[in-house]
Amino acid sequence: MINVGVAAHSEGSNRELARRFVEKLSNDVRIILGGYWGLMRDVADVAAERGIQVVFILPNNPRELPPRNKFFIPIDTGLDFKARSTILVRSSDILVTLGGEIGTMIELFMAYSYGKPVVILRNTGLSTDKLEKAFNSSFDNRLTAPIIYVNTPEELAEKALAIASKGKMLNIGLSSRPNG
Fold it and tell me: Are 52 and 31 in contact (CB under 8 A)?
């Protein structure tokens, strides 16, 4: 199972963008979101329609709770938005963004700092579009994780799966080595 964290705009809605992204995900994916509003809601609803499990890492006093269904797992952290983001990022094998503002960018920087690969959709019309100009292939000189920019939501899903699958295989190989 691959845990794909999705950082997305909390104000706007774009069901078509969400549909194009989610339709390219495989069935061995679990999506992790920070809430059930804005573009995150679109991703969650499309995922549920496809039978993909969605875990919500909710902040205290969320704007809206996800509906009860067999595909949604809400986790009430009781934490503020930034602290909740730490759990979202740490629980993800990879973090992708369909575009967003400062909260999304904080999650992207956090993922990078934890060594989690980041895949960013270009040309969303949101502030995350500015990241590539400032940070081409890395957020700093440490090169702790790959930063990849893509042009379409389909490419976002395909790159995320390829990178996360490769990382999972490396981890499996490392964990099967005998100690000593």
Answer: yes
Q: What pLDDT shows up at residue 137?
A: 82
Q: Scanning the structure block, which residue is given the tokens 């400032």?
A: 134
- Look at residue 165 in the predicted model and tell me its pLDDT: 86
pLDDT tens for 143-178 read 999 999 999 999 999 999 999 988 755 554 444 334
The 3-state secondary structure of the chain reads CEEEEEECCCCCCCHHHHHHHHHCCCCCEEEEECCCCCHHHHHHHHHHHHCCEEEEEECCCCCCCCCCCCCEEEEECCCCHHHHHHHHHHCCCEEEECCCCHHHHHHHHHHHHCCCCEEEECCCCCHHHHHHHHCCCCCCCCCCCCEEEECCHHHHHHHHHHHHHHHHHHHHHHHCCCCC
Residue 97 and residue 104 in contact, taking contact as beta carbons nearer than 8 Å: yes
This prediction has a pTM of 0.90
Give the per-residue pLDDT at 168.
58
CA neighbor of 36 nearest in space, from 3, 59, 70 = 59
- With beta carbons less than 8 A apart as the criterion, state whether 154 and 24 touch: yes
